[in-house]
Each structure stands twice: as structure tokens, then as C-alpha cells.
């Protein structure tokens, strides 16, 4: 398997394209501005896309998910507890997404970041094909195993940053979205975030991964679980 990394200009969100030896591929976290690069890659290499995955429903990780899934004719997969965010990407981010207006107008920091890169916030398109997995009301759902092309991906529920935050485990890699970063963890002060739930996720989900697992976060550099256990202050204090 090969992992190709693309980085969105909006908040530096990481998009990962996983390519299996048989030519099948999946896209994880299609942030703003990555669509054309993904399409060019798929065409140049003759890849067979199977799905667009989202580690969670925040729009800096899903902006291009809708149009990309339509262009590739594949579904968008994410945890059921975050699926509602796709219909209201700015309103479900609270003040990060909007100014606090009851109409959830896209006028907050996220919209400003989009405008700064030439993206019109009003042009957001929600995915037409969404396939949620996991349970909406579970404190933590059981693993979902996704067989996508030649790839076997374990989707492990890891709430706290959002209700449906998910780790995607593939071979010795963990795509952690905004749950775990190199030296830090995701914020819990946005709508749907919960500090106590995040602590449980860090203790029972993240800290129990094999030490050699490579951490591929939604923003910033990669790391390893062993390094995070030794040096990440949020894991040290568990």
C-alpha cells in the first residue's frame, strides 16, 4: 500500500490517498482545494476509487467530499454520529463557522480562511451519497471493518473532538483526524466536543494502540504512538 499526502490551504488539513497494490484507492479527508489533485492522480495512474472517508464531520476535512464523491462515483463514509454535520457545515462549528447568527451565516474564521484561498463559502455542496457506519447514540461504537477495493480498513470510534470522530487503522498506520496530533490532541470546545469523552478516548482507544503504530493526523507532521506516549503531555497525564 502507498499513501499519498495532499495538504489543503485551509487550516493545513491533510488529505490522504491510500493506494492498494491492485490499483484500488480511497481518499481520507477531502478538504478544500484537493479535488483536482485527487482527480489528476486517479486519472494519471488509472486508479479505481472505492470511497471518500472522513475522520469526522468538520468542514475543513469534508469541503471537497461531496463534489469528489460525485466525480468519482463513490460514496462518502463517516461515523453516523457526525453525518448531520454535512448538511450544515458552518452552523455545526459554532463560532468557528459563523458569527453566531441564528441563520448560521458563513462569516466566522473558517469562512475567512476559505475566502483567503479563493474558495467561496457559499459554494459548499453536501454529498449526495453518504453511507454512515456505527451507532448514533453509542458512547463508543464497536469497530466497523470497511472492505474497500483491496483495502481492509478498521474504523474505530474515537469521540471527544466530535461525537463521531474516528480513527482509520490500516496496516501499521492510524489516520487520527483531529483526535491526536504530534504533541497535542484535538480541541473539545466546539459543538459536539466533550473533554471527559476525549479523555476516555485517549486512555482507552489511543493509548492502547500498538507502540509502533504510525500516527497520520489531520493536521501537521506524522508521529508514532510510542513517541506520543512518551512526549505528548495530554497522554502523559492520563
UniProtKB/TrEMBL annotation:
Span of domain Metallo-beta-lactamase: 12-219
Keyword check for Metal-binding: yes
CDD domains (alphabetical): metallo-hydrolase-like_MBL-fold
One Pfam short name: Lactamase_B
Cofactor names: Zn(2+)
Keywords on record: Hydrolase, Metal-binding, Zinc
Top-level division of the source organism's lineage: Bacteria
Family matches, as Gene3D superfamilies: Ribonuclease Z/Hydroxyacylglutathione hydrolase-like
Keyword flag Repressor: no
Residue span of region Disordered: 217-238
InterPro entries associated with the record: MBL_Glyoxalase_II, Metallo-B-lactamas, RibonucZ/Hydroxyglut_hydro
PANTHER family, A to Z: HYDROXYACYLGLUTATHIONE HYDROLASE GLOC (PTHR46233:SF3)
Name of the protein this chain belongs to: MBL fold metallo-hydrolase
Species for this entry: Cellulomonas fengjieae
Source taxonomy: Bacteria, Bacillati, Actinomycetota, Actinomycetes, Micrococcales
Amino acid at each position: 500500500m502507498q499513501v499519498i499526502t495532499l495538504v489543503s490551504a485551509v487550516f493545513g488539513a491533510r488529505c490522504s490517498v491510500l493506494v492498494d497494490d491492485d490499483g484500488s484507492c480511497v481518499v481520507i479527508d477531502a478538504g478544500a482545494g484537493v479535488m483536482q489533485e485527487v482527480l489528476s492522480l486517479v486519472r494519471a495512474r488509472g486508479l479505481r476509487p472505492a470511497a471518500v472517508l472522513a475522520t469526522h464531520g468538520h468542514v475543513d476535512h469534508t469541503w471537497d467530499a461531496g463534489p469528489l464523491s460525485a466525480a468519482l462515483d463513490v460514496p462518502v463514509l463517516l461515523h453516523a454520529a457526525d453525518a448531520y454535520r454535512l448538511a450544515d457545515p458552518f452552523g455545526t462549528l459554532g463560532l468557528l463557522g459563523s458569527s453566531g447568527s441564528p441563520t448560521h451565516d458563513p462569516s466566522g474564521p473558517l469562512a475567512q480562511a476559505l475566502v483567503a484561498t479563493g474558495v467561496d463559502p457559499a459554494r459548499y455542496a453536501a454529498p449526495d451519497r453518504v453511507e454512515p457506519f456505527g451507532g448514533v447514540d453509542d458512547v463508543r461504537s464497536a469497530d466497523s471493518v470497511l472492505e474497500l477495493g483491496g483495502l481492509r480498513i478498521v474504523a474505530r470510534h474515537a469521540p471527544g473532538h466530535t461525537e463521531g470522530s474516528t480513527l482509520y487503522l490500516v496496516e501499521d498506520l492510524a489516520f487520527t483526524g483531529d483526535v491526536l496530533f504530534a504533541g497535542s490532541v484535538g480541541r473539545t470546545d466546539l459543538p459536539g466536543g466533550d473533554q471527559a469523552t476525549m479523555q476516555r478516548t485517549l486512555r482507552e482507544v489511543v493509548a492502547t494502540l500498538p507502540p509502533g503504530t504510525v500516527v497520520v493526523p489531520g493536521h501537521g507532521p506524522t508521529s508514532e504512538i510510542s513517541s506520543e506516549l512518551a512526549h505528548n503531555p495530554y497522554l502523559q497525564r492520563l
